[in-house]
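Standup notes, structure subgroup. Blocker cleared on the fe (ii) ion input:
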Amino acid sequence: MVTSLHLYLPSKRLKELMQTLAPLLPLGVSVAVRSGERFLGGAGSNAEQLTEHQPDTRSHPFVLDGQSIGQLLWYTPPECASQTQPWIQHLITLCQSMIALEQARRAVTHEALESLREIALLERASTSLNRSLRPKEVANALLTELASRSPHITWGAVFLYDITDSHYGLLTTLGHNADALFEPFARSTFFQGMIDGQIVGIINDIAAHELCSNHNSLFHSTLSLPLDAHQERVGLLVLAAEHKEAFTSADLKRTTTLASIAATALRNAQLFAAETNMFRAFISMIATAIDAKSPYTAGHCRRVPEIARMLTEAACADTTPLFAGFRFTEDDWETLEIATYLHDCGKVVTPEWVVDKPTKLSTNMDRVELIELRIQLILQQEQLTPQQTGNKGPKFWQEALRFVRACNLGTEMISPESEARLRGLAACCWRDGQGQEHPLLDEEELDNLLIRRGTLNANERAIIEDHVVHTINMLKGIPFPPRLRHVVEYAGGHHECLNGRGYPYHLTETALSIPARVVAIADIFEALTAPDRPYRSPYTLSKTLDIMHRMSREGHIDPDLFQLFLRSGVYQRYAENHLKPHQIDSVDLTVYLGG
Amino acid sequence: MDTVVIVDDEVHIRSLLEQTLEELQEDYAFEIVTAANGGDGLAVVQRERPRLVFLDVMMPVMNGYDVCKAIRADASLNETRVVMLTAKGQEADRQRGLDVGVNHFMTKPFDPDEILKLAETILKS
Ligand SMILES: [Fe+2]
Ligand SMILES: [Fe+2]
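Run returned:
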């Protein structure tokens, strides 16, 4: 950089000096201070026009660090040359001491300003590098900060050190096509030198370096630093430029400062990631436990997260006004994942025989077998006393048993005729070994067989529905950090309906967020298409969507989200990955997309 | 020639700012004038009609808000850009600065590069 005299002889002070000098100068003499083309100040007539090529004009250069930065010019009429000389000498000395003083002052100032720069950099960096606890974001912040400060950096990369296999994995990069450039670079002997510590700091001509065999990279200069925190290796920072001689000591200084902060921030992020992984493992363990509890819902807790994620991605990508304002942050994704994995965690306290009660008479066993025994007993007794008037005969009892078994399955509605028949059977009696008479069906058995739809009686239904309350209470017991504060809401709302007819809190539209509605849809879709269900084959895609379409019209699930589920093709992609081929039948979307 | 005015009661802040800005004098012709309190600062601004004023907040005689308010009350000074120098932790008072017509804010301890960047954009325009 060429410095100019005007920086060392500030115009104001030069002006003052010249003003004091002017009256003392012999008549006809003029002096000027110039820096190249620039006139800085002077005294006497025509001072501004003075050049060294004029006759009787002499000059004296001002030199700084071996470089001429300007000159003093003076014109003296020949008759008073000797008289003027001491004055000129005096002026030169004055100017030189002003320059020296100014130089010293600038050096001190430079130091002070450098310290200020460093403080500012440290402060900004410690904020920006510690803003996130995700290694990748920390590394990106480091590269961005460095690149914004140094125009020489064309590419940058942060490698993370994996202590388990001593491998340096590429964490993130910066610059055009950087990933493709750093990948082969990371296999070079030159990179190995950086890892081994043979290369640290600036290499301003890679091709000339002894560790560089057959240089074919676009990188010509590099600046690399190990990232160490508390004497532990965290990773490696590599900056690269497309020209030789790109990096300066100022770059190195700044990079060193930032690298040390970044290393600590990365270390913290790694520790945090380890904690998070452990937490995730717990979540996964619970999901596995719930899924393992019932063979019929196996995989439910693992598949609902996938559907919910796909549908949420579709909402983020949607360009219609319906989801225009919908945004999802990293924290939101994490919240959704945890919430979906744990949405049914309350089922750990639901008794197994209720979770997927296969028949109406099931408890820990199917009590229809007891009824068969009783009927066999009655038959035996009838055979022993063939003349007895109340005997109904084997055919009747075989029919009766078949009928009870059919009712027990709960696949068909109980008609008034069936109800009457069951009540009639209940009134029949069998005799125990002591001759004591008992009804064929006790009150509780009769109540169960009379369940109009499905296999669950009112009490059992309440127990099942209670699983959400348990889910909510269990999740409320976990001190989620603020960024995950919506886990309970997303998980706890999966059986609520927009029309307020859901459970447990009968929430309505206003209280149900989009993610909570997404979870509800994912839950229903998974449950309907699940491959293994007691006593029924899995629904086909078209039947499932038929059912969900009706639910959407009835205000059970969010119609906008359901439409998005269809038109985004999420249902189709999920089906291709998870459903049995015979479940995937053709679906006519136009039927549903009309509304 | 353009003028830049620095108004701050702390002498080292004045000289650091002045010396930071001197780096720009290589490329831009402007003069730097300083003042050590709000009252003098306003007088200097009214006399010099600067392009740019660096203005401290807490100062004797007249605080930065009042100086800025007075500058903004003078329609002939509407080309003058005001940069308020706030201390760390006083960022909350920015609204008050905006209300009296401050154009930019800088937090002390300031980053010389930020000062240079800001001053350059203003002097260039
Ligand atoms: Fe559930
Ligand atoms: Fe579920």
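Discussed briefly. Chain A has four domains: 5-109, 135-275, 294-351+459-593, 368-455.
Next: hand off to the docking folks.
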